[in-house]
């Protein structure tokens, strides 16, 4: 279980690069032994946040705390963190052992300790027996493991990872996602991970921080972020969504497509305009029946491997639906969505900063 103590805390952090505002009043904390992912598109501020925590950038405004101590102005070498970048920056003239040992030698650790710690890291990342190989003889996945071992051998309290799987092919990336999560759990240290890949974030994280335009949009567990997105941006960015305009009639009742539907949401106020989110996998498609909530015409059907993806014109909108049962193009179908899977959001919901 994750400790509730705030190991890292950012308070009112703003960063500008001349006329460009990279971060806008960020407030964020990271707990001990937590796997936190900063998720968002290029230019959203996630890597800048990571670099400020690592000491490679300094905030224009705001403070950074580590273990309750203000480290805002401290250089990287005085922070108890290590960083793994997308470009691994391994030393091409050194073999695997010497790459991993480099930081320990800088710290003047004894040869005996260096040997023991490097061998332990090689075991941890699955590279036992690779000590004498040149890094240019390794695959991309193996080089990534060396970079992680080099960072971990210094026993940091926090490992910062800036899109470290971005250069790997799809299959290797999926394998490494599981390995990184298992590694973090075995070591019991804090991982702060940056990615634009939603699947990566959902697979590995204890907590996801969704970012856009230098601001935090939502913070929560993967399930919370997916099932209860705070605004249309999060709903659209995390997975696939049908987002429809609606009106909140009363608690547990919302109107969209000109009809009232039961939901589980409360507290929006009668007559409030809202956005309604329907995930494609929650849109049940079948024959037109009396209990069908909506009826429509199938515009297209694509086989996606584990399901069919269908676009269905229901009059008020074109809905995307995922189903293991194929519906032919041009056919009339009925659609139902259970109340629990109808998610209501405030329209134009202001994100947290």
Explain what you see.
- The two termini are about 25 Å apart.
- The chain has helices spanning about 45-55, 95-105, 110-125, 140-150, 170-185, 200-205, 220-225, 230-235, and strands at about 5-15, 20-30, 35-40, 60-65, 70, 80-85, 160, 190-195, 205-210, 215-220, 240-250, 255, 260, 270-280, 285, 295-305, 310-315, 320-325, 330-335, 345.
- The model has no long low-confidence stretch (mean pLDDT about 90).
- The chain is elongated.
- It has 2 domains: about 5-230, Rossmann fold (3-Layer(aba) Sandwich), CATH 3.40.50.300; about 240-345, OB fold (Dihydrolipoamide Acetyltransferase, E2P).
- By secondary structure, the protein is an alpha+beta fold.
- The relative contact order is 0.12.
- It has 8 helices and 20 strands.
- A 6-stranded mixed beta sheet has the order 6-7-8-3-9-10, sandwiched between helices.
- Helices cover about 25% and strands about 35% of the residues.
- Strand 7, helix 5 and strand 8 (about 190-195) form a beta-alpha-beta unit.
CATH architecture descriptor of the largest domain: 3-Layer(aba) Sandwich
Q: Based on CA inertia axes, which overall geometry fits?
A: elongated
Given helix and strand content, the structural type is: alpha+beta
Give the amount of beta strand, in percent: 25-35%
Number of strands: 20
CATH topology of the largest domain: Rossmann fold
Gap between N and C termini = 27 Å
Q: Largest sheet, order of strands side by side? A: 6-7-8-3-9-10
Mean pLDDT score: 90
**Name of the CATH first level of the largest domain:** Alpha Beta
Quaternary structure state of the chains depicted: single chain
Q: Helix count?
A: 8
- Uncertain regions: pLDDT < 50 for 5+ in a row? none
The secondary-structure element order is EEEHEEEHHHEHEHEEHHEEEEEEEEEE
The CATH superfamily of the largest domain is known as P-loop containing nucleotide triphosphate hydrolases
Major sheet details = 6 strands, mixed
